[in-house]
């Protein structure tokens, strides 16, 4: 039997989250940062269950005959494999959490439960509970007159088995998430804390005084979030009102996971599963807290101990821009490329602010997918509209879990006089595209910005992204064509310079891979380099396998899901895959086709996932400037040379930390050092 060259998408994602967990386990990572990685592992897993496991459950409900198009696994088989792997990973998460918290005690911070406190601390907590907590909690006893309550997604509840004097058993439930009290309870002993849910669980007998307490636990329910907005949309509805209603419905969807912090009798678990209509296989017992978001409060108490954190880094001035000069002539002189978070987003913000106030600017057009809660970008667009510019903004209301924020911004933009559109029927608009049109001395000028990441000032300090700014007329004309199509609720079907999904990206990528295959078959050197978040598109995967078999050398830096297994003899032996998981979230996308003398280089908003290549509006921009090409080549080579935060995928789909053979190289820290040096030279 030939060796498998495909990896299941869900299992590949779990391997990515395992790499996140490895950073929590990594003793070379500062202690408080390890705690952050443990929290990221947990929040990642929460979303995975809501979206991906929820989607698989929906597939099972539709008959269960659908199979993964690469590994041919049914939804049921995928769920079983996922649950098995998650159980193993959660044990590691519990162990590393306990280890980290034990080491934090040496720094004067104690997270305690009632097994670890003194009599004096116990008396203080009892008084605190009776004074601060008991008056505001809302207990429920499930019975004939009181049905089982709706348990909100990812919120924590104390559940207790109550026994009456007659021997009957009932369930008592208390919500532990309440704005009326703090989650992190500070004890009088300096640096000592307890989670409020542990406090409530301990004193639950004081709430249900008339009953005998048989068993108790903290629980958390995760609910399906995978609503298909387009399938539910009614054309007669206002789209923004429809999305508002959709968010409400999402909060009430069926449970996909139940977590408990205490071991409970199987019969009780079965009763909970029966109430929740959840299979018992989806129940997990965990030792660490059900929600680790509180760790950031713990970290704040330790900020004065610098060795517990990464070295402070600040985005630097880009050497490509002169701060005291207008942006427009600088772009006419030469294309510019910003690299976040190493370089500051300020030149792009200055570009927008200048455009908003420049009397010669006619219009600003922009796509918004995720923006900051306090967004200067949106403020500048509002300023532009109020200054009489034509402002067209496409706000993607289907940006999962950011819908409420986007709905609010869309209202503000409309109120200011911007023309706001909401994407296309059946397609998300995920492109990062901004076009400023200016008329100077009777000539129309186009200034285009195309990025790999969102227009979000906060994530620009946390994610690695690229931002091209150019006055290239041909690119500007094609960007205008994209906006015109979006305004007409259409998609672009013909472009020469840009790659624009859903109709002009996948086919062009396949064509460029074919071109490299042709070179290889002629005995010439052929090369493909790809940097992205995920690779799942089977058409592209199969074409990459064909290229490998033809002798094309392929290097890929893929942070997350990779459904192609490299290094398989006779199939993918010319492909290497690396994943970088480090301090900053790798988010930039780079496509390289061809050897240096004939190479084509693009930066893009699109991963090679079918949802991106065929079901979204995405834009990739060619890099024509020789200096910028060289800059991207050097970045890519540096990432391939990372031997600190890179893992290499082997021919069985497993990831191993790259062995340090020469000088240690952490690519992210290298890029920051480079940015600091460049800024100092200015």
UniProtKB/TrEMBL annotation:
Residue stretches making up the Polyphosphate kinase C-terminal domain: 326-489, 498-668
Transmembrane segments: none
Claim: Phosphoprotein is one of the keywords in the record: yes
PTM remark: An intermediate of this reaction is the autophosphorylated ppk in which a phosphate is covalently linked to a histidine residue through a N-P bond.
InterPro entries membership: PP_kinase, PP_kinase_C_1, PP_kinase_middle, PP_kinase_middle_dom_sf, PPK_C_dom2, PPK_N_dom, PPK_N_dom_sf
Top-rank lineage group of the source organism: Bacteria
Primary role: Catalyzes the reversible transfer of the terminal phosphate of ATP to form a long-chain polyphosphate (polyP).
Family stated for the protein in its record: Belongs to the polyphosphate kinase 1 (PPK1) family.
Protein name: Polyphosphate kinase
Organism: Anaerobutyricum hallii
Origin organism lineage: Bacteria, Bacillati, Bacillota, Clostridia, Lachnospirales
Gene: ppk
């Amino acid at each position: 039997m030939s060796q498998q060259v495909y990896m299941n998408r869900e299992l590949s994602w779990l391997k990515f989250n395992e790499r996140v967990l490895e950073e929590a386990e990594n003793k070379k990572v500062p202690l408080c940062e390890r705690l952050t990685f443990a929290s990221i592992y947990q929040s990642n897993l929460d979303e995975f269950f809501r979206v991906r496991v929820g989607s698989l459950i929906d597939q099972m409900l539709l008959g269960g005959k659908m199979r993964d198009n690469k590994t041919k696994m049914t939804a049921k088989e995928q769920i079983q494999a996922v649950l098995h792997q998650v159980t193993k990973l959660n044990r590691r998460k519990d162990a590393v959490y306990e280890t980290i918290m034990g080491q934090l005690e040496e720094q004067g911070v104690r997270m305690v439960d009632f097994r670890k406190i003194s009599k004096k601390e116990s008396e203080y907590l009892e008084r605190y509970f009776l004074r601060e907590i008991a008056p505001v909690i809302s207990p429920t006893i499930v019975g004939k007159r009181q049905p089982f309550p709706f348990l909100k997604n990812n919120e924590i509840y104390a559940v207790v088995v109550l026994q009456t004097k007659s021997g009957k058993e009932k369930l008592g439930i208390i919500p532990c998430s309440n704005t009326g009290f703090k989650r992190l309870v500070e004890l009088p002993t300096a640096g000592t804390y307890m989670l409020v849910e542990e406090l409530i669980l301990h004193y639950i007998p004081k709430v249900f005084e008339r009953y005998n307490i048989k068993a108790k636990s903290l629980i958390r329910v995760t609910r399906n979030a995978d609503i298909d907005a387009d399938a539910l949309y009614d054309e007669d509805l206002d789209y923004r009102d429809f999305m508002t209603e959709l968010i409400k419905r999402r909060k009430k969807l069926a449970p996909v996971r139940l977590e408990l912090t205490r071991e409970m009798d199987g019969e009780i678990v079965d009763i909970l599963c029966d109430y929740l209509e959840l299979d018992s296989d989806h129940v997990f017992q965990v030792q660490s807290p059900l929600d680790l978001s509180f760790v950031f409060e713990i970290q704040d108490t330790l900020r004065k101990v610098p060795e517990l954190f990464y070295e402070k880094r600040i985005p630097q001035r880009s050497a490509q821009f002169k701060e005291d000069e207008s942006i427009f002539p600088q772009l006419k002189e030469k294309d510019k490329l910003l690299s976040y978070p190493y370089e500051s987003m300020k030149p792009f913000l200055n570009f927008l602010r200048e455009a908003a106030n420049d009397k010669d600017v006619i219009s600003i057009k922009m796509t918004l997918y995720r923006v900051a809660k306090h967004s200067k970008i949106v403020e500048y667009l509002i300023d532009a509209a109020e200054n009489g510019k034509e402002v067209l903004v496409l706000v993607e209301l289907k940006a999962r879990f950011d819908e409420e924020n986007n709905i609010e911004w869309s209202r503000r933009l409309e109120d200011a006089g911007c023309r706001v559109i909401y994407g296309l029927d059946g397609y998300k608009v995920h492109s990062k595209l901004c076009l400023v049109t200016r008329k100077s001395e009777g000539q129309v000028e186009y200034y285009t910005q195309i990025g790999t990441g969102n227009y979000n000032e906060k994530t620009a300090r946390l994610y690695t992204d690229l931002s091209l700014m150019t006055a290239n007329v041909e690119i500007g004309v094609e960007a205008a064509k994209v906006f015109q199509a979006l305004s007409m609720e259409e998609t672009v079907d013909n472009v020469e310079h840009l790659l624009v999904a859903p109709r002009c990206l996948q086919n062009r990528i396949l064509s460029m891979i074919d071109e490299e295959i042709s070179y290889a078959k002629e005995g010439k050197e052929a090369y493909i380099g790809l940097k992205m978040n995920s690779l799942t598109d089977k058409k592209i995967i199969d074409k990459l396998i064909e290229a490998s078999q033809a002798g094309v050398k392929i290097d890929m830096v893929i942070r997350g899901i990779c459904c192609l297994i490299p290094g398989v003899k006779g199939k993918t032996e010319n492909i290497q895959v690396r994943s970088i998981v480090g301090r900053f979230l790798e988010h930039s996308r780079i496509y390289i086709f061809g050897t240096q003398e004939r190479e084509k280089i693009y930066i893009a908003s699109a991963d090679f996932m079918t949802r991106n290549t065929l079901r979204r509006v995405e834009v990739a921009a060619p890099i024509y400037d020789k200096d910028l090409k060289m800059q991207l080549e050097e970045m890519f080579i540096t990432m391939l040379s990372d031997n600190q935060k890179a893992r290499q995928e082997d021919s069985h789909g497993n990831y191993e930390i790259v062995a340090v053979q020469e000088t240690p190289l952490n690519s992210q820290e290298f890029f920051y050092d480079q940015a600091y040096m460049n800024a100092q030279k200015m």
